[in-house]
Task: structure prediction
Amino acid sequence: MRQAWRVSDVRSAEKALMAALPDGTLMQRAAAGLARRCALLLQETGGVYGATVVLLVGSGDNGGDALYAGARLAARGAGVQAIVMQPDHVHAAGLDALRRAGGRTVVDLPARADLVVDGIVGIGASGGLRPAAAALVGALPQVRNRAGARTPVVAVDVPSGVAVDTGDVPGDAVHADVTVTFGCLKPAHVLGPAAALAGYVDLVDIGLGATLHPSPAVRVPDAADVASWWPRPNVASDKYTRGVVGVATGSATYPGAALLSVSGALAGPTGMVRYAGTADQEVVRQHPSVVAVKRVADAGRVQAWVCGSGLGTSDDARTELRSVLATSLPVLLDADALTLLVDGQHAADLRRDAPLVITPHDREFARLAGEAPGADRAGAACRLAAWINAVVLLKGDRTIVATPGGEVWANPTGSAHLATAGSGDVLAGLLGSLLAAGLPAERAAVAAAYVHGLAGRRAGLDGPATSADVAAALRPVLADLL
Result:
């Protein structure tokens, strides 16, 4: 598992650590890690000696990190040029170190450079890049290295111009190939559009671990986490002890939603799927292992319910939703079930002690919350989770899972191939299967999003993927993972 901390927590941790260290120690540690990563990149195109490195230097410590790293590269024979954005506010000691090592300041971006280091602004900045910096950054794609390829960009701590605590990109920003960050990850590395601008994130240990707040702002699962959570059968298992998931989705009008959600559920860890809905005959034809009836009331015993996609918004659909919410079981609501919640008629039904998971996309979220997620998607998801006492899985390229208690997870496996009709139905069925197998709601949501993302990537290997392709990819993905 990876974790990310907000700026205020990072500042507090740095302050506590600096009080116990000689002045400037943290900056030198950061500069050493930055210079090391830059040297490794330069080795790919001929080495450090003789390479041309351009530093984009802003004011404050971020610029100081870049200057000290540049001094280290210059001492190894690189030709280091620094474009100083605000000469009156430059880190004076860092600039002096660069010059003593043989580096120099320049005014314009050269046509040729082997590496560009973005040290314009750091974690204390707000808003997009200012016009002068934006113009400079806009010219970076035209710079070429000695091999004739586009010059790679290394960002210092975060790409300049991103919103560090939310992952938003409010204006012009640097698009880095590599981001070298210090002490800990920040939310911008793992959330929102900023994460895509960070490129490969290299975390340099500068000793902050012991002083960081024990609760991170964002958690990011890895394969080992998901594999360790995933329920597995043993020699004593039978179809009932593995869990039975109820699926109340689709209809005679929208049988595809039923088939896709059932496909997702069958790929999960439960031993049985019970379907309740008017697409029952089509479900049994496609999936003969499923026990199918027309109403939730007739489904029999299950350990969790999935309800919503393709259900419609008729009175009959509303009755099925009420039947699901009236149980004392974990419930996942998606699509049409979320639409039915908006008019407020089910407010009393939501006052339940059993776990509830909702899986809105942005438009569904806006209808439920009264406003779009906005720039702070994680914060918005947390507020909705607390308001309705549910785990919220907010879909997107960086899907967010938020709990009523304020815990946030960011899914790292998102794929554009999942932007296809019915993909969410597959996710809902898989997540419901995890709930029925006994996984806590937040872990079920995180694990389902992770595996669903991997399936989207796999399905897209052979070209444009459909939701049926995503469902078919779940089993081979799980075989690799587990």
Notes: The domain at 2-216 is CATH 3.40.50.10260 (Rossmann fold). The longest strand covers residues 52-57. The CA atoms of residues 322 and 346 lie 8 Å apart.
